[in-house]
What we know:
By secondary structure, the chain is an alpha/beta fold. It folds into 2 domains: 2-156, Rossmann fold; 164-284, Orthogonal Bundle (N-(1-d-carboxylethyl)-l-norvaline Dehydrogenase, domain 2). Helix content is 50%, strand content 12%. The chain is built from 12 helices and 7 strands. The protein has helices spanning 10-21, 41-46, 62-74, 89-100, 117-120, 130-143, 159-187, 194-200, 210-221, 237-247, 253-264, 271-284, and strands spanning 2-6, 25-29, 53-56, 80-83, 105-112, 123-127, 151-155.
Amino acid sequence: MELGLVGLGKMGGNMRERIRRAGHTVVGYDRNPDLADVHSLEELVGKLKGPRVVWVMVPAGDATQATIDALGELLSEGDVVVDGGNSRWTDDEKHAKELAAKGIGFVDCGVSGGVWGLENGYALMYGGSAEDVAKVQPIFDALKPEGEFGSVHAGKVGAGHFAKMVHNGIEYAMMQAYAEGWELLEKVDSVTDVREVFRSWQEGTVIRSWLLDLAVNALDDDEHLDKLRGYAADSGEGRWTVEAAIDNAVPLPAITASLFARFASRQEDSPQMKMIAALRNQFGGHAVENKK
C-alpha cells in the first residue's frame, strides 16, 4: 500500500520506518527538508496513486487545521485523510464535515507508543466510517503491536481521539501515584534503597506496569533524580479529559487531582514532579528541565 505521511518528528519519523519495514511505500513530507522525501504537499499528493491515503502527524490546533485545509484542495473524491496527532475530538467532526463536502473521507486516530513505538508497535484508537477505516487498515496493521490487541475501531469520527484523551488522563493519574509513592519512600530514613524497592515491584505485584519499568530506567540513570527540576508540563489532553468529565457529569477525582498537581509543579521544585518529568521523558521523549 502507498501512504502519504505529513510530519516526520519523533513520532512520525519512526512511524514511517515501521510502515516501510512492513513492506508498504511511504512518501513523507516535513518542513525540515533533511527529514522529507518530497519538497511540498503538492509533490507528496502527486506521487500517490488513487484512492490516496494521507496521514497527518503535526501539532494539534492551527498546524493540523492548515494541513487539512491544504490537503482538501489537493486530494480527490474517494481519498482519505487520517489525523494521527493529539487533536481535540471536537475538531474531528469539523474536519470530517469540511472534507466530506469534497468527497474526501476522514479518520481520526489516537496513537500511543512514544519513542518506543518503532520496535514495540503503537497502540491505535481510531474513529470513522467502516469504509474509510478499511482503506487505512493495512497501515493500522503495520503500526500496531504484534498479537491480538493494540488496535481498535473505537466508533464514529472523534471516537479515536476521545479514547486517546481518556488514555492520557489515566496515564496522568498512574504517573502521579508512582511519583507520590516514590517521594514518600525517599523521605523516610528507614528505607535505604528506594530504587531497588521500585525494581522489586516489577515482578509479582499488582502495580507492575510499563510505567513502573520506565520509572526504574529513570532511577538507574539518576538514582535520586537530582539532575532534574521538579517541573512537568501538561500536553492539554489531561485538561480536555477533566472538561469532558464536567460536561458529562462523570466524577474523575484521581485524574483531576493529578492535573492540578502538574500546576503545582510550576510554583516550586516539586520532588513528585521530578518523577513525572522523568517518566514523560522515558516514554515520550518529552523535554525535561535540568537544574542549573
